[in-house]
Amino acid sequence: MKKIAMLYICTGKYEIFWDKFYETCQKHFYPDAEKEYFIFTDSERVLRCKLPGVHTYYQAKTGWPYDTLLRYQWFCTVQDALAPFDYCYYVNANSEFLRDVTEAQIPYPTEREPLVLSLHPRYYHDLDGSECSPERRPESRAYVAPGTPCRAHCGAFWGGTRDAVLEMCRTLRDRTAEDLADGVIAVWHDQSHLIKYATEVPHQNIAEFLVSYEEYADPEKCLLMFPAKAKYGGNDKLREVSRDERLKHLPRKIYRSMLGGAKKLHLDGALKGVARIVKK
Ligand code: GAL
Questions:
Q1: Tell me, what's the pLDDT at 232?
Q2: Which of these, 92, 67, 76, lies nearest to 11 by C-alpha position?
Q3: Whose CA is nearest to atom 8 of ligand 1?
Q4: Are 23 and 81 contained in the same domain?
């Protein structure tokens, strides 16, 4: 029987997602495998939970965007505990498995392609980074030169063989730390580093429609869904940061594409907020 380690972060308000994630992951994610959970949280409730195979680690909320950016640092702290596992997977806190994930739908990592990566559903067919927004500032270690084939890999779900995941976490831990030492934060934080890393290492991409944010999901096909954060007060409330603060460092080109996305999805609140910042 395969042994799988699930890596999971729920700090601050994100603890509300834990129960649904745990219940649906236990039920649907490779039901035939043996799963254990490595949870980084500041929630007393989650820290105290005594479920079998659930290991909890105190992790303070570090503030946006560090709550997401520093994930590779945190995962490296449990490297030794991951030794007994065949595979490791990370999933966003707001994750719900809707149906069984089996090898037929998402094959296990292999020796040749030891990482398994998901793609952002909105940019699934972007094959060169022209629609999604890879880091284009050469001062960041997440920099992807224009013209380099690159896809919209998604920070919300990724996995691989234990060794490949640990190698990735160590590499991206070092790159984010070096960026920070230079005062640089990649445009989409940990996700930008993942996008760059995927241009460098062999991996398999998960087929379209299987993993999706709710806003883009086909309910007939989706196996793993990230529920719309709007239902839980929105991105900024969950992240405990104001929208202006969260977006003010982003390049204009990215606001424009966000405006396009918000319009398409009729997200009126988001639209107003982004429009206000674009004006400034
Ligand atoms: C989101 C992703 C998160 C994290 C974040 C970085 O799209 O779901 O896991 O990578 O981007 O800003």
A1: 86
A2: 67
A3: 156
A4: yes
